[in-house]
Amino acid sequence: MRLSAGTRDAVRELWSIGAQHGRVPSPTPEVDPWEEADPLDPPVDEAVVEFPGAPDISVHLFGDLADSVTVDQNIYFETPRADTLALVAALLAGRARRRPVARKGPGFVRVLRQAWLGDVLVVPLASGKVYQQRVLYQPDGHGWMLSLPEVAG
Fold first, then answer.
1. Element of type H or E holding 54
2. Who has greater pLDDT, 85 or 27?
3. Which stretch of DSSP H or E encloses residue 64?
4. How far is CA 31 from the centre of its chain?
5. How many Cα atoms sit within 13 Å of 25 on the Cβ side?
6. Rounded to two decimals, what is the model's pTM?
7. For residue 103, what pLDDT is reported?
8. 24: which residues sit within 8 A by CB, 6+ positions away?
9. What is the 8-class DSSP label of residue 109?
10. Three-class SS of residue 111?
11. Cα separation of 58 and 61, whole Å?
C-alpha cells in the first residue's frame, strides 16, 4: 500500500511523537510509512495510527485533512491536520486536564450531578489553542481521566 505524501509525513510524525514520549504506536502494516511502496498501488489518503496504553489514543487521518482523534474509545475530537499532531503530542505529554462540571452542593447531590453531567476533558496545545470535550460519567471507565489534575472553569 502506498500512502500519499501528506499522509505518510503525518504518520511518520505521529511515530516520532510517540517515540519521544515512550508510546510507540501499534504496528499496522497498512500504514507503514517506511515500507517500499508498490508503484502499481494508487496513493492512499487515509490511515489509522493507534497508541495503546493509558490513555488509549486512535488517530484517523483523512485525505481532506479533517482528522479525528479518539481517546479511550469514546472521547472524540475532530481536528484539522494542523492541530492533529499537536493534540496527540499534548495528550502523550500529559498536558490534559479534567474540569468537573458538578462542583457545588452537598456530597450526595454533587455525586448525582457528576453522574448526570460528567466532566470536561481539557487539552491545551502548545500554540495556545485549547480542545475541550464533555465526557459523561461511566462508573467502570475513565480511570485515566479521573486521575488527571482538575482545572477551574
1. none
2. 85
3. none
4. 18
5. 24
6. 0.85
7. 63
8. 15, 18
9. H
10. helix
11. 10
